[in-house]
Amino acid sequence: MQALVLLLWTGALLAHSSCQDSAGSPQEDAPAPDTTGVPMEEEDPFFKVPVNKLAAAISNFGYDLYRVRSGLSPAANVLLSPLSVATALSALSLGAEQRTESTIHRALYYDLISNPDIHGTYKELLAAVTAPEKNFKSASRIIFERKLRIKSSFVTPLEKSYGTRPRILTGNPRLDLQEVNNWVQAQMKGKIARSTQEIPSGVSILLLGVAHFKGQWVTKFDSRKTSLQDFHLDEERTVRVPMMSDPKAILRYGLDSDLNCKIAQLPLTGSMSIIFFLPLKVTQNLTIIEESLTSEFIHDIDRELKTIQAVLTIPKLKLSYEGEVTKSLQEMKLQSLFDSPDFSKITGKPIKLTQVEHRSGFEWNEDGAGTTPSPGLQPARLTFPLDYHLNQPFIFVLRDTDTGALLFIGKILDPRGI
């Protein structure tokens, strides 16, 4: 990555062409580039820490999943917590024989990690990102077909590393749905609505990943400055949405000339941050930005952005998602899990992945820890005020600063909801 330089004395120029060259750009038929992460792991001490290296690997899986999911619904909002899906897949790999295990591990980028205890490290990562001060909850579960006899040699390491036990369906759709809903409510502390969709018949293996986040800014917004303002859905259509404002916001900023977007990072409590990607022109086609997203690129951004003062407006956001990511995973070279996998470490009966469900909730409002910026944040002096208005389609990334883990990613074409 090239160094940041001032551009017209208003901000920073963030060029990432060298990062793209090393990371590779995902192709339509191969969304998981084999080379992602290799140079950075050799050069950057951050990625030499086992938990951080694992976080980078599954985050790259997350960016792949997001790209495929976004491509399947180009005209709709996308909200994903890829970590919960990755956790379910990683846990399932405990029951896979070598061929099937390798398929899952390649999708999760484990083949680029020389870590003999990936599952033990995963336990450490989950503990780090779900600590109470993070305001982030994530849980995953493996659900099996009724009357399946499961080997204790699978259940024991599953419980040890992932803190969960598998669930065997009763065959009664109403009771099974009630049990799953009760589990989700318990894991998410009631933050995610109960599902009304019945458990489908014919399930062999169902993976469920759930997550919720309610952010708290390091510096809170003044609710008296929140007002209805225009959000440009595209060049012709606008809607009125509640927008939070701060005329003297302290944020970290860069202008990426290759991606034609303005990047801003806002700190959250608990060593978390949100990075926003805002195109210079109103557009719903965010593909060029999406293709650049990797753990290494985001890590570079985190190092290179410059602290400035800006006039900031940002929509209040409360989004939820419930649905399948089955098709997305099938397009990520995981089709064999649905066709003819080998899960003989789980049971002697042939079983296969049937469905992968994801439920998530995400919100931010004016809430914050303090009314003034942290004393250590000294903004660069600008010759005139910089504006950063999230009043048109944008992408955001919620990242755990300590580990670099991708916790949530969203494409917001309409902040009124999914």
UniProtKB/TrEMBL annotation:
Write out the annotated subcellular location. Secreted
Q: Which SMART domains match?
A: SERPIN
* Keyword annotations of the record: Glycoprotein, Secreted, Signal
Query: A GO BP term, please?
Result: positive regulation of neurogenesis
Signal peptide position in this chain?
A: 1-19
In terms of InterPro entries, this protein maps to:
PEDF_serpin_dom, Serpin_CS, Serpin_dom, Serpin_fam, Serpin_sf, Serpin_sf_1, Serpin_sf_2
Q: Where is the Serpin domain?
A: 63-415
Q: Where is this region: Disordered?
A: 20-39
State a GO cellular component annotated for this protein: extracellular space
GO molecular function terms attached to this record? serine-type endopeptidase inhibitor activity
Q: Name one Pfam family in it.
A: Serpin
Record-stated family: Belongs to the serpin family.
What protein is this chain from? Serpin domain-containing protein
Organismal lineage: Eukaryota, Metazoa, Chordata, Craniata, Vertebrata
Q: Which gene encodes it?
A: SERPINF1
